[in-house]
Amino acid sequence: MDKMFEKVLRKRGSRVSTANDWLQIQIGGPDLGKKKKPTNQNRIKSTKYTLITFLPQNLLEQFRRIANFYFLVMTIISLLIDSPVSPMTSLLPLVFVIAVTAAKQGYEDILRFRTDNVVNASPVTIIRDGVEAIIKSQDVAPGDLVVVEKDCDVPCDLVLLRTTDPHGKCFITTANLDGESNLKTLMVPRELPTVDLKDMHKLGMIECETPTTDLYSFNGKIELKGGEGRVLPLSAENVLLRGSRVKNTECVIGCAVYTGMITKLQLNSRLTRNKNSSSETYINRFLIVILVTLIAIVTLLYFLKRYNELFVIPKLTYLGDATDSYSVKQFLQDYLSFLILFNYLIPISLYVTIELQRVIGGFFMEWDTELYENETDQQCVVNTSNLNEELGQINILFSDKTGTLTKNEMNFQQCSIAGRKFHFKKTRLEEEDTHALLDINKFNADQRVFFQALTICHTVQVAAGSLEEADASSTTKKEPPVATGKKSGPPEMYSISDITEESHNSSQQSELNVSHNIENSVSEHPNGVNGGGGGGGGGGGATITSSSDVNPLLVSNDSYSVERRKRPQVVKRSPNFARPANRVHIAPTPGDTQINQTELNGGNSSSPSTNGAGALHSPIHSPHIRPISLQFQRSTSERDLPQFGEAHNSAALGHRRAHSYGAPNAYLSNPMGSSSTPSTSAIFRSPSTHSRESYAAPTFTRQPTILVRAESQRRKNEIRDFIFTLDYQASSPDEKALVEACANLGLVYTGDDDEILSVRIVPPHLDYKRPFTMGKPKEEKFHRLHVLEFTSDRKRMSVIVRDAEGKKWIYTKGAESYVFPLCANSSGHLVTKTDHHISDFARLGLRTLAIARRMIGEEEYRDFLQELAQANSSLENRKQLSEECYAKIESNLDLLGATAVEDALQDDVADTLVSLQAAGIKIWVLTGDKVETALNIALSCGHIPPDAKKYFIIECKNREDMLLHLNALDREIIFGIGQECALLIDGKSLAVALSEVAKEFRDVAVKCTAVLCCRLSPLQKSEVVALIKSSNENYNTASIGDGANDVSMIQEAHVGIGIMGREGRQAARCADFAFAKFCMLKRLLLVHGHYHSVRLSLLVLYFFYKNIVFMGIMFLFQFHTLFSSSSVYDSLFLTLYNVIYTSLPILFIAITEKPYTEEKLMSTPQLYKKNTDNKQLHWPYFLMWVLFAMYHAVIIFYFAFCMFSFNNVILSVGQTAAFSCFGTLLIWGVVIVVNLKLWLESMYLSYWYIFTLVISILGFMVTTVIYNVINLDYDTDIYWAYNNLLASLPVWLWVLLVSVACLVPDFTIRMLQRGLNIKHFSIFPGKQRKLKMREKFESTYL
Prior knowledge:
Elements: H1 2-11, E1 17-19, E2 22-26, H2 54-62, H3 66-80, H4 88-120, E3 123-128, E4 131-136, E5 145-149, E6 157-163, E7 169-174, H5 175-178, E8 180-187, E9 204-209, E10 220-224, E11 231-234, E12 239-240, E13 245-247, E14 251-258, H6 264-268, H7 279-312, H8 328-341, H9 350-366, E15 381-382, E16 396-399, E17 406-417, E18 420-425, E19 428-431, E20 437-438, H10 445-456, E21 461-462, H11 466-475, H12 560-565, H13 597-600, H14 642-648, H15 691-696, H16 703-726, E22 728-729, H17 733-745, E23 747-753, E24 756-761, E25 779-788, E26 796-802, E27 808-814, H18 816-819, H19 828-843, E28 846-856, H20 858-873, H21 878-889, E29 894-905, H22 909-918, E30 922-926, H23 931-940, E31 949-953, H24 959-975, E32 981-985, H25 987-996, H26 998-1005, E33 1010-1013, H27 1018-1029, E34 1037-1041, H28 1047-1052, E35 1055-1059, H29 1066-1070, E36 1073-1075, H30 1080-1118, H31 1131-1141, H32 1144-1152, H33 1158-1163, H34 1179-1206, H35 1219-1241, H36 1247-1268, H37 1281-1286, H38 1289-1315, H39 1327-1336
GO molecular function, one term: ATPase-coupled intramembrane lipid transporter activity
Main location: membrane
Membrane topology: Multi-pass membrane protein
């Protein structure tokens, strides 16, 4: 491969040199002086043909098909000899088939060419010799400095050299590469010197490996120029791959290394192996049988002809003297004449019709509304239409678990900390033994360290600007627009710093759903600081005051106290749980006369409501409505109760709760601040010294509890909305779930700034009994030194951080089977307890991870840095050396605990799996989860029947143990007659089975009802599929998955099915079929699979049937012509028979046939078994159609022969019929019978289908009428022959009689099968029974 790349690069005039199979690329490109820069080095070509190569290459591809090649040979032969029929009878159908196929493939290639041109001609900004220039994408060459801006695609593979991010980071998405939509972070090479743009081309030389298909690896180095002569290592985190898109970074500059067709994207975009339907095997078998039959017929007729020439013709003196000599030329003439005469036994139009049927059938699947997902606007996608019928032949289904059987929506549920088990309760932990509720204020040291580890041991990114956006809502002044219409998008989110102290104290029952507004009475500030009082009348509206009553607990900005006091604001709304609402409402400027209706409605922009808190368009002063600019104070009153608000204030704006920090007292007064008499419904209280005491005063017994619960709920909602605003971007949903759970508990990860991780401590619950302190929220900082990335081999990830005290720690998170062996001996007792808890979690179907850490000494850290630098500098085995370095420092860890995350099942998974099993499909689940977790999911989703006997093969390490297990399992299956058995095996044991006893494992495993393989790598998944495919039983396999790790399994199976899920679209793009939900698989297989199998079987068998009828008459005719090799049909009939007379009805029924209704197939999965293993293409069905064809040929020929022999005066004019009438009558009968036979075999009769049958028969009649009125002396003379037949009553009676005589047996057999429920029988009795008995009593492996 390396030599190939070198040859390609040299051929293209590349500026890349190769040394020791490594590429050397000058940054900025070499100085070529006045030479013209090379072009087209980054050109993408996905087309198959060019104008010069299209014709020869396309013809070569088409003539590889046996039918096309056969007719080509027959055409050439008919041109070389004295053909009994016109050569056009072979040439015209062949040209038609070749032309249609060539036009289709040529059009598809033109579309690819146009798409390529759009990409190749797109503008790209580069820097050459320090000057920016815009060129076409196809002209980018290795070494060019390419500028890529935000939201733009990367034009080729680049080494990142400069970014506008101050910390040298670049954020990208790789949905076009691996299907993952989350943000990924790339870095400028560490210690790369910063130079001016005009000097970047003088940086040095890049040396890297030749391109490979691995998207996640890159080995290279930069040799810097100048006196330093330093060498900087390059890895995958320094490379932007073609197909990725820059996000959240304004601009980046990179050096092109791989361009054009050798980029990693293009190397991965190469076509995979072609998948062929299993039905093609049967079609090829039938073709071989027909071809052998053809040779036998031709040979038989030739010898009969020679016999007649030698012994019969000499006795017929009126034929003249027989020839004395017989040459080789005469032999070829005779033999090949018969071959030309019967070449229509091979149906040339079969392949074209099958192709059309598959393409149209693929459209039907894509148009199926039951396979359309409305929420994501995703329809079914058919990438490989030639596998449509294979959907009805599946024996074994391989399925991923996460994201396929489950939704891949993770929710943190439980955890084990220091040997104690806890349940997650939104903002608290509940200990399992004592049921005590703990919030972050009550955490002990172990619990704090555990969640601290979860908060920093990850690679989660906070989307750029999200934190600033969240904080901006509390620190900047906003001017709400006039409400002019509906506001789109989600409600505005606010910073944690906007969350007030009022909700700090909540009850244990924080989940209480309060369905009504709890409104607080309002009061004017006692000192009248509202500046303008309540509502002056002039057009200026209410005067705005500056609020200083803000909770600064959650604000980390030191300038907050100054800026916040200058912020005009409307205080918070009352908690309203009936609809989403904004958290803070910013007051309008003094000139504003209208209030944003959307904000007053809490994000709901519908028409003004007449309910409790109606929407207002302007601050119209009313004795019951207080101006929003006034300072509100907290109070406790009967007015706050929901019942009171509904009864007395149904049309008023809901009262808004005020901040009470520093308020000297709290009381009620006239809502408008005027001297008018206050409302009688108001209840006055004397001022209190502290508003906190008045808030808790038990004036009414119900009200404080309701308020506390409502405040708690509001508090949690605001934290949840803030987390949503942060927009965590994680490489896996597990990581995101863990970080969000920590945030709900009060440890909010707010992002990293130049590898400085920030964790804000935000207690969701505060005790009102304790005094409130006016300090800034606590924020912890950690300097992230290294990230030891997760890989499928390591099954863990680690981070090395330095805390505020300067201590260095390594935190490790991963699968317990890989983390426990790394723990120190001192953690042995804790490992046992935690392992027991993990088993409990797994039995509940939860996904588990173990968490550990330890402190790193300075000397150990220096050694680690030195070893890691050496590993990164190595160009050989860099990955292996790095992992050895990682493993050395990931040792002697102190176990902290374990996490348990729930992944909910997909909709209707259980019904789908149970139905597929009832349809005879064995299901293998291949997952990376541990055995206990996968087993629980398998039981809950119906994969493993509840009463099935479960056999475990765990931790098997050698061949002997594996054979013992397989022997025991085989005996369980053999002697447990009727007992369902499920096999569960882990990855380590499976590795032994695949390498040591693959055949034995396969033969035993396929006997199980269900198989569950756990802890598998993506490679092992594909190896399992390949193993089953190698069986002599010829199992038809299907694989279904949703992630990039399932691609190898999907491509290996006979049918690959992708789920367009949360893990991206890589699996869907590589699959043959793709849809949005797993439950759609049931309809895809049971309905579409069944239909397509039946349709293709009918199509194939009918094509052979109608050609055997057609040629059978020709065969019988030879016996009455002394085997003269003359044709009974005119050349027009030979040409149009497969093109017009019989093509349309079979194509129509092949795309619409429905032997059962869709509802019947969905409710009765057992019907799926009727078509598996291509039962309807087995020899009994084929021979039955052949027998009917032979019978119909005999009836048609001899009925016509008898009529012409006994009395051929059948014409209306009283004349004898000519020979041309005989051939025309035969083809007329053939066209009618074969079309009516198709009608009889069809189950789904529609008006359009009947119309195609009628139009085909009429098409024959019209074309024959037109042809027979033209006097052409080209082939046979049928001038006016068909018109004479149409005018003859005996001919019409003959047509009716022949049709009935031919189809009565067909109809009788069909009615007997339906009426008496007679099944099709096998013409090989006992074969299947003997095979099953042999398998059952087969000796075991020991």
